[in-house]
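Why should sequence recovery work at all? Because a backbone constrains its sequence more than one might expect. Tight turns favour small or flexible residues, buried strands favour hydrophobic ones, and helices have their own preferences. The token representation captures these environments compactly. In the example below, the structure is given first.
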């Protein structure tokens, strides 16, 4: 047997996928109009996968196809708007395909002041709730005994999140908002949701894992970077991963044979990594799930 190939911090999406034939696979990728989402879609399609890619506007997502040599289906999904997320799920379902993987990649770092909708601030809504809503609406399309869900979290789930993890009593940020603190909170929500979903989908043979893609300065994740961050950008570019490197771990978890059967884990640099221990606490998982379901039941369009 050939030795298992080792990937690391500087591995790229193309290197991780080298030698794989993804013909016949269908993979849903959110936030594929730019950055690591676009690179993920490109790399997967180049190996034969049918990529269904979402973007927050028709203008953004329709332009993706020119970067992709392969089968690509664009879907508008504005994760600011639950109605748009539900519409996107309906369009994916109408395609009549089974999904081999879902890569929940889309995300934002919010502005200095919170923008509130559905009773919560931007990042909790876009990064966590909208992905939970989308996955819930298309989950039945996932292939039994081998389907995969990959959720992009971050090391910020440990480094930046509040000590108590998630400020359930201040989800609108009116009392304690800070853009990086609340970004960390949203990424902890991603991680915790992944671990809770892994338990729920295990009986179907579907795996769910979360990841830290690495620090990538050259994406549009941060829509309003602020003066300090603009001043630090040259240094950030010098120490950050490239976009192809940033896309590697999510590609690895979505399709690589090494990850078959692995579930409920957190990865960085294509390897298992330590994560915020709160995400493993059953009570914390269930509280997040219950609160999230209550918000979605109140504000998302009914089935």
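From this structural description, the recovered sequence reads:
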């Amino acid at each position: 047997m050939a030795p298992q190939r080792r990937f690391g911090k500087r591995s790229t999406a193309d290197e991780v996928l080298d030698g794989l034939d993804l013909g016949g696979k269908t993979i849903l990728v959110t936030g594929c109009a730019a950055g690591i989402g676009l690179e993920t879609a490109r790399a997967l399609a180049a190996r034969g996968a049918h990529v269904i890619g979402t973007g927050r506007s028709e203008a953004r997502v329709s332009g993706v196809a020119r970067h992709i040599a392969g089968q690509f289906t664009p879907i508008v999904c504005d994760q600011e708007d639950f109605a748009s997320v539900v519409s996107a799920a309906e369009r994916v379902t109408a395609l009549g395909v089974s999904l081999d993987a879902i890569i929940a990649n889309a995300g934002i770092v919010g502005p200095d002041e919170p923008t509130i909708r559905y009773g919560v601030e931007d990042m909790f809504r876009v990064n966590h709730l909208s992905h939970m809503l989308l996955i819930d609406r298309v989950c039945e399309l996932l292939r039994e005994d081998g389907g995969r869900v990959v959720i992009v979290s971050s090391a910020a789930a440990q480094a930046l999140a509040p000590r108590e993890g998630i400020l359930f009593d201040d989800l609108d940020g009116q009392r304690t908002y800070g853009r990086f603190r609340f970004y960390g909170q949203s990424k902890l929500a991603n991680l915790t949701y992944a671990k809770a979903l892994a338990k729920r989908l295990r009986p179907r043979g579907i795996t769910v894992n979360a990841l830290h893609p690495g620090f990538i300065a050259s994406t549009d994740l941060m829509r309003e970077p602020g003066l300090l961050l603009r001043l630090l950008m040259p240094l950030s570019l010098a120490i950050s991963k490239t976009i192809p490197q940033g896309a590697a771990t999510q590609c690895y978890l979505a399709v690589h044979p090494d990850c078959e059967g692995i579930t409920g884990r957190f990865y960085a640099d294509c390897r298992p990594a330590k994560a915020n221990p709160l995400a493993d606490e059953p009570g914390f998982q269930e509280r997040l799930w219950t609160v999230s379901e209550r918000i979605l039941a109140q504000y998302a369009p009914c089935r």
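A few observations help interpret the result. Residues 231-238 have pLDDT under 50 and may be disordered.
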